[in-house]
Specification:
Layout (H helix, E strand, L loop, with lengths): L1 H26 L5 H22 L7 H22 L5 H25 L7 H22 L4 H22 L1 H6 L2 H32 L2
């Protein structure tokens, strides 16, 4: 049953991402470019993972996961720099460089040990949660809330906070009985779906409103 539900969630993710790409492409606004690239790239990663699972391709998914995490980090950081608060170009490049080094080291460790036991994505999860927290503190100072932006930041915080917990307990989640751990993976999948929906909604409304 859990495998069946996991397939449903992943198929839904692919459909939502495909619709999102079409919607955001139609807006054709410069500011929505980072969101469009994020949605399109996520669609490619999700489709690749789904095809490998369906056809039982015996290729490790660890590297696909590492690349997708780095990809998410870069484009979400660009999204925050465009819409929410100032992040200097030098600061962003410094963050990208440091995170890239960490992921290269992680990739080498994964390749040598053939075991995903280095939790490098915890770093980017915490940074992205921090971005959302800065947004929330800005709301408290200004007392002004935009619904679409609030929904996006809540979804960012919830997904990456839960993903951090999943990463910390990764060995437990991959080594214990499916009935114990499957609900956690499914919950993460639902939060990821909500994150993409809120991101598409934000990009679409921002693009159509020409903000």
């Amino acid at each position: 049953m859990y495998n069946y539900l996991a397939y449903i969630i992943q198929i839904t993710l692919c459909i939502v991402l495909l619709i999102g790409v079409i919607m955001l492409f139609k807006t054709k606004t410069k500011n929505s470019l980072a969101i469009l690239l994020l949605i399109a790239g996520s669609l490619i990663f999700e489709l690749t993972d789904f095809i490998f699972r369906v056809f039982e391709v015996n290729i490790s998914n660890h590297f696909n996961y590492l690349i997708s995490e780095l990809f998410l980090f870069v484009l979400i950081t660009e999204l925050y720099a465009v819409y929410f608060f100032k992040l200097s170009r030098s600061l962003r490049l410094g963050l990208y460089f440091l995170v890239s080094i960490v992921f290269i080291i992680t990739g080498i460790v994964v390749g040598l040990s053939e075991s995903y036991s280095v939790y490098s994505n915890i770093i980017i999860n915490c940074v992205l949660c921090y971005f959302a927290t800065v947004y929330f503190s800005g709301i408290l100072r200004k007392g002004k809330v935009e619904t679409k932006a609030l929904i996006l930041n809540v979804s960012v915080y919830l997904f990456f906070a839960v993903d951090t917990i999943v990463s910390v307990t990764f060995k437990f989640l991959v080594s214990n009985h499916l009935n114990w751990v499957a609900p956690i993976w499914l919950f993460r999948g639902v939060l990821l779906l909500l994150f993409y929906l809120s991101l598409i909604n934000f990009g679409w409304k921002t693009g159509t409103n020409k903000l």
